[in-house]
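Protein Record: Sequence and Backbone Structure Tokens
======================================================
Tokens: labelled as protein backbone structure tokens, with as many entries as the chain has residues.
Task: work out the structure tokens from the sequence, keeping to the layout shown below.
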Amino acid sequence: MAKFAWEGTTREGQFKKGFIDASSSAEAESKLRSMQVQVSKVGRAWGQIEINIPRMGGVKTKTLVVFTRQLATMIDAGLPLVQCMDILGSQEPDVEFQKVIMGVKGQVEQGSTLADALKKYPKVFDTLFVSLVQAGEVGGILDTILTRLAQYTEKSMKMKQKVAGALKYPTFVLGASGAIMVLMLWKIVPSFAGMFKSVGNRELPAMTRFVVKLSDNFIHYLPLVALIGVALTIAFILFKRSPFGHRLLDLMLLRMPVIGSLVQKSSIARFTRTLGTLVSSGVPILDGLDVVARSAGNKVIEEAVNYVRAKVAEGKNIAGPLDETKIFPKMVVQMIAVGESTGAMDVMLTKIADFYDDEVDVAVDALTSLIEPMIMVVIGGMVGFVMVAMYLPIFAMADNMSGKQ
């Protein structure tokens, strides 16, 4: 008996791999078929040890965009869906995503629709992705829908990268400055304090005494401070995960002086682009609003969209309830009202999304230009305060020595 490594798809359409004991590869395949596994690869394992570390999240957005574009091109060229998935799965460099693709292929081979197969992988394909694919399958325009979906995902990715990029520099600088302050209070200030004690009981300046006292307390209470910090972090995470905490934090984020405007513009851009993509793809407006609410990314915006959906279900238009929420600006409401009256809702929503994408870019640039000098002033002030406090006694001793001479 020997050990054989295998890869294949289960009856449920999940891609799996592992090891099996058999006297030959043919026997290994036979055993796997009896286990209702469709074998794609089998071979002798020479002392291999399989270590499978599952991924906690989904795939990278860029990987998903490339997959969506390639699938759209292949379907437009007339290739069968199963063959498309087989080609994409075999050439996918991301092993985890390859398993997902092969799992989807297995589901489709068993007669499932593509949308139903994608639903089984919610961490990779969100509600918006599945809803659009379902609309494309029903309308017979799957290739067009996938192209639109790739464009939408690309624009969303660029917006997220823009916002994340603006926050990277301040986060890094604040982290580095915090580490520098910890090092100064932990190592540098005690060295100066020891030097001051060695030269006698001379009265230290008030600023120096404050910094030395701060350093002593910092070293003494450091374990307690670290413990409190960990406890507060865990408490914050648990609070954020609770429904009340999640909503309160999202509301505070929207009402913050500078960041609130950026969050609102970003949410409006996402709302209008998502709804515009859904409407132009033939998704019913109530289903579209439901998808938009679940992909809003902000609890307050989600509640507002759900309110609008409920009013639309009662027979009202979209613009009126949107205005009642007091979250969406008048310009957005009026443009959507014009889109409803002219029957060009999808075009109007796309124009609003493009406008607010530009607004987000401008807001991010303004925020970056505002934050950077403020951070430098704060860091310079903190480090400068400590350094001046440490050097004041040295200057005083130098003056005394020169006065004696």
Notes: Residues 345-404 form the longest helix (60 residues). The chain is about 75% helix and 5% strand.
